Each structure stands twice: as C-alpha cells, then as structure tokens.
C-alpha cells in the first residue's frame, strides 16, 4: 500500500498498532467526515493561539474526479472569499509569488504556502467495559499537514466546486442550477492543500478488561459489557416552501438510503 512519508509530527506514539499511514485509509476517513477542523497560524502576530475553523472539505486529484482513494491526493476546502482563512491564504500566496520571483534569481525554493493542519474524526461506537477505566470509543481519526493555496484557475475551481458539491450529495451539481454566475464564482473561494504528512488512528472491536476483573464472576454477572453502535443518519428530505418538484428525485432518495446503510454498517464495528 502506498503511504505518506513518515514524519515526527504525524507519527502515532501511543497505541502504535492502531496507526495507519496509507493513502486509502486516511483519504477514506477524511471523505467520510461531515466536517473537517482546520487549524492555521493566527493572522495576529501577538496572538499565541492558532486559529481553528470547521470547514467542508474533500480529497481529490485534479482533473480526475474518479481517482482511487489509494492514490496521492489534494485536500480541497470550501469557503467564502472574505473569510479569515481565505484572506490569509491569499496574502500568503501573493507573498509566495513575490518570493518565487526573488528566489528564481537566487536559485532558492519559493515559499510553500500557508501551513495548515486538518483533523477528521468519526465515532463508531461507545465501548463499555467492566470498569470505567477501560471504557473507550471505537473511532477513526486522521490528521493531515500541508500548505494551502487559493485556486485561481477557473477550470480547476469549477472542477473543485463540482467535486465538493457531489461529495455532499452525489449528482447534486448536475441536478441544480449550474454553472455558477460570475458573482457566485467570485465570492466562493476554494483552498487547495498539498499534503506533506498525514496519519490515521483507528480503534474497532469490543472492550478489553484486565484478568483480575475477568476472573471475578460476580462482577461479570452484574456489569453489562459490549459496544453501543454510534453513527450519523440522514433523515427524510423536507421540501422547501417554494419547492415545485412533486416527488423526491431518485438520486436524492438513493443517497439517503445508501448513506444510512453505509453509516450503520460502520457504526456496528
């Protein structure tokens, strides 16, 4: 399996058997998360705390929307052009272009872009052991580190907008009013994050208790142990008051059913 290069910042130190560094596992977790949390340096040099934003994102490989998750990919983040992160990334990109010109003369590497960290977490179950000390969660989590650049090329921006839209609801882009008009295209910003390091950590299965408790039949007869599956579910579509389409479209009905089946299956782990 193809993997991300190992780096100290992305190496799992505790419970290393749960660690994964392969593209497919990491990309699958990121794409399954409804929300990604993106951390980046504060634009205020006097503020010691990094900024943190919940965002919509998806892994992709331009221009191939069908590229397998086991291949190298970029993370695309959706936002509004005037948001703090988008402004900061845009400023960083301008500085990068300036540095690139200067460094070409010096034969140095240009500035790589705005450094960001991206977190995706999915909780699949509540693990109940004989003692609270060994209670746990079944989870899938991924952390990515990379440099972000705003997409300026119209073709790639439209491709990324299509990818993000269909990532949320498959076939939605084709079944909505597209293409976006000039004001929509201008106000929407897409960040392209080139991933430099990443890792995932996964726990699945039942509880694990110590021998002293396993030998205590009194405790085992009194305390229920096992896993309570936990998963997001997609509800039945609710039409807007100005909706004129009489029946829920097949692509949307199929999405609801398929998504719930998939999420329930993962929650049972």
Uncertain ranges:
none
Tell me the distance between the termini. 23 Å
Q: What is the global morphology?
A: globular
**Helical stretch count?**
7
Q: What structural class do helix, strand and pairing data support? A: alpha+beta
Query: How much helix, percentage-wise, in residues?
Result: 25-40%
Proportion of β residues? 25-35%
Provide the gyration radius in Å. Answer: 22 Å
Mean pLDDT: 91
Task: Give the SSE string.
Answer: EHEEEHEEHHEHHEH
Major β-sheet strand ordering: 2-3-4-7-6-5
Q: Characterize the biggest β-sheet.
A: 6 strands, antiparallel, barrel
Number of strands: 8
Could you explain the architecture of this structure?
- It is a single chain.
- The protein has 269 residues and is of the alpha+beta class.
- 30% of the residues lie in helices and 28% in strands.
- It contains seven helices and eight strands.
- The protein has helices spanning 23-32, 84-106, 154-168, 182-187, 211-214, 217-222, 250-267, and strands at residues 19-20, 36-40, 51-60, 74-80, 114-128, 136-150, 188-203, 226-229.
- It has a six-stranded antiparallel β-barrel with strand order 2-3-4-7-6-5.
- It starts with 18 loop residues before the first strand and ends with a helix.
- The model has no long low-confidence stretch (mean pLDDT 91).
């Amino acid at each position: 399996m193809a993997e991300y290069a190992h780096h100290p910042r992305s190496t799992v130190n505790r419970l290393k058997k749960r660690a994964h560094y392969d593209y497919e596992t990491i990309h699958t977790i990121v794409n399954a998360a409804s929300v990604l949390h993106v951390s980046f340096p504060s634009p205020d040099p006097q503020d010691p705390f990094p900024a943190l934003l919940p965002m919509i994102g998806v892994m992709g490989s331009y221009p191939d929307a069908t590229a397998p998750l086991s291949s190298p990919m970029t993370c695309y983040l959706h936002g509004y052009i005037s948001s703090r992160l988008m402004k900061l990334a845009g400023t960083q990109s301008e500085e990068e272009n300036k540095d690139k010109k200067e460094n070409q003369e010096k034969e140095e590497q240009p500035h790589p872009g705005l450094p960001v960290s991206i977190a995706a977490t999915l909780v699949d179950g509540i693990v109940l052991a004989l003692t609270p000390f060994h209670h746990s969660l079944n989870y899938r989590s991924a952390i990515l580190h990379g440099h972000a650049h705003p997409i300026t090329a119209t073709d790639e921006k439209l491709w990324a907008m299509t990818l993000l839209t269909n990532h949320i609801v498959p076939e939605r882009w084709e079944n909505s009013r597209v293409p976006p008009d000039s004001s929509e295209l201008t106000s929407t910003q897409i960040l392209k994050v080139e991933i430099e390091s990443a890792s995932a950590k996964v726990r699945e299965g039942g509880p694990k208790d110590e021998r002293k408790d396993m030998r205590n039949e009194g405790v085992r007869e009194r305390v229920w142990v096992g896993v309570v599956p936990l998963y997001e579910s997609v509800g039945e579509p609710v039409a807007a008051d100005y909706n004129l389409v009489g029946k829920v479209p097949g692509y949307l009905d199929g999405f609801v059913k398929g998504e719930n089946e998939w999420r329930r299956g993962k929650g049972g782990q």
